[in-house]
Amino acid sequence: MYKFLVNISKNELNITKKQYREETESSNFDFEKHCGDEREQLGKDDYYCNEDLVKQLVFDAKLTTPYFATWYATSEERKLANEYKVNVRFIATSSGLTRWHYINDDSKNEKVTEQGEKSRTFDGQVFGDLYPKAIEETWYKAAVLQHLINAESLVVATNLPVLDKTIINKPKVANNDGDITITASYAIFYKDGNSETPASVVGVQFVYSGFYKKFLEITNTTTEFSCTDQKYDCYVIDSSGYVVLAHDKDDVGRFFGVIHPHVLQSFMDKNIYEHVDVFNYQALCPLSALPDIPSNAWIFSTPFNSITNLIRWLTAELFLILFDVVNWQRNVYVAGQDEGTTIPPVEDEIEGSKNKDDDSLFSCDHRISLYILNQSYFLDSIGPSPAVVEDEEGECHPPYWAALVTKTNLLLVVVERGPWHFKDTCEKPPDTEPVATSNSTTNWAPCHKLELGQLPRRRLEDCFTYHDKEKNITACGIGSKVRVDPPAFVLSAIMAFFTTAMLLR
Question: Which residues are in the Voltage-dependent calcium channel alpha-2/delta subunit conserved region domain (predicted)?
């Protein structure tokens, strides 16, 4: 990338070069050159560019260079960075460019020469290695969506655990040092009149320990309430219902509905949280997800049943052999001959060559419940800091208080500790863990294709009884030939005669 930008700055690359030549209305179509002129075909080391995208990339690179060459921060900005333990600041533009700068560890910052050669003393992965997709990263898309809800707010989130049970090596929420990385991102939009489009997303990453320490300092400023009180459980959850901050560090990254399902259900009843079911039609499930198939064996079996089944089987095999007498010679395997039909392999040998890991999983469909915070519930309310207050215990929820954290996607929730005893009839919200659908575990056909066979079909408008390539067929079977099989015909006549004679007695 650096060499690419250097070559462009030196005008050594022609960004107007296109993959195919432009077609004109007057040009005649040539079948042999319909993919372009042979003289303009690209070689192994050639290239072609999207001129507009390259210009936008170069513009973003030049515009962001002064801000990431060094950090010109005020004393107040450095104080906040130290209090929250900010370690990296970054920007990702809509053209796909990502820049980052480590504040307190210069060994992780890359040095680039005028020739485009980059180097750094740190051997491990840095921000660019962990997040190389720019506009496809979760924090980028979440910041853009949050801007549509509140243009002045930012998105704060942590790494979420992988809930799919089929994945063995799941990434951990915590870092190698035991702390947790928190990402805060904010979207910047181009605006032209009433129209706007995302230009970039800026943000910082800081550690959980500094964030939690600052949270306790803010919540302990009054004597009436404190999150250090053993009477309350304080949580900060994001707009998807996952815990970002909690007294128990192990709860960070978990779904709040698993910790306090009755509180989340109360949120849903008040339209504070909404949920929707999405489906993954390319999922994998363990064989344990298959239901137990009931046995089809007879309840009472006697020796007469076995003898009857044997006679039926012998009779069926006899008829199959007699009616297939014409093809006897074609299905005989001759020992000691190298030429002729190859004996098919034994099924046990085929199954033995399969990978045992493939048999432990099967394709299925997953249903996943997703949640979204209805931020307009708080933003459209009258008052400086609207909150949801339930001072008394309800039939299906404990006492709790909730308020939107200003200019963020976070919700502060305080739950009074119990013990609380609720009825079994109290409704609970569905978990976010993927669940196999019943159709995909009881029917091998994909559930979203089961109804396709019931759709009305349009009749063919023409008569299709002939294909142009039928004349090229040289090998034909005998299934289309109408002929009489003498042995089968004689045997059928004899059986019909004796059967009729027995019935007339």
Answer: 26-472
In angstroms, the Cα distances linking 494 to 489, 490, 499 are: 9, 6, 9
- Going across the sheet that includes 195-207, the strands are 98-102, 86-93, 195-207, 181-192, 155-158
Domain termination site, one of 55, 71, 87? 55
Q: Model confidence over 422-439: pLDDT tens digits?
A: 888 899 999 899 988 887
Same domain, 16 and 50: yes
Q: Is residue 246 part of a domain?
A: no
Place of tokens 């109408």: 482
- Mean pLDDT computed over 119-130: 85
Name every residue whose Cβ is closer than 8 Å to that of residue 187 and which is 6 or more positions away in sequence. 143, 144, 146, 147, 198, 200, 201
**What distance in Å separates the CA atoms of residue 82 and residue 206, rounded to the nearest whole number?**
10
**If we measure between CA atoms, which residue out of 138, 145, 135 comes closest to residue 200?**
135
> Using a CB cutoff of 8 Å and minimum separation of 24, what contacts does 285-294 make?
285/166, 285/361, 285/362, 285/363, 285/364, 285/366, 285/436, 285/440, 285/441, 286/165, 286/166, 286/360, 286/361, 287/359, 287/360, 287/361, 287/362, 289/364, 289/436, 289/441, 290/362, 290/441, 291/441, 291/442
Determine contact, residues 223/234, Cβ cutoff 8 Å. Answer: no
Confirm if 400 and 413 have CB atoms less than 8 A apart: yes
Residue 313 lies in a domain: no
d(Cα 245, Cα 410) in Å, to the nearest integer? 10
Q: Is the model's pLDDT at 303 over the cut of 60?
A: yes
Q: Which pLDDT tens digit goes with each residue over 182-239?
A: 999 999 999 888 889 999 999 999 999 999 999 988 888 777 788 888 888 999 999 9
* Range name among 23-32, 46-55, 345-354, 495-504 with the lowest pLDDT average: 345-354
- Domain end residue (candidates: 190, 224, 258): 224
329 vs 55, which has greater pLDDT? 55
Q: Are 362 and 287 contacting, i.e. CB atoms less than 8 angstroms apart?
A: yes
How many structural domains does the chain have?
A: 2
| Better pLDDT: 100 or 464 | 100
* 272: in domain: no
Choose among 501, 141, 502, 484: nearest CA to 325: 484
Q: Are residues 79 and 22 in the same domain?
A: no
Residue 163 has pLDDT above 60, yes or no: yes
Helix (H, G, I), strand (E, B) or coil at 289: helix
Strand 273-286, strand 98-102: pairing: unpaired
pLDDT in tens, 352-370: 433 444 457 888 889 999 9
φ, ψ for residue 180, nearest 5 deg: -120, 135
Q: Could you tell me what percentage of the chain is helix, strand and coil, using 3-state DSSP and rounding each to the nearest 5?
A: 35, 20, 45
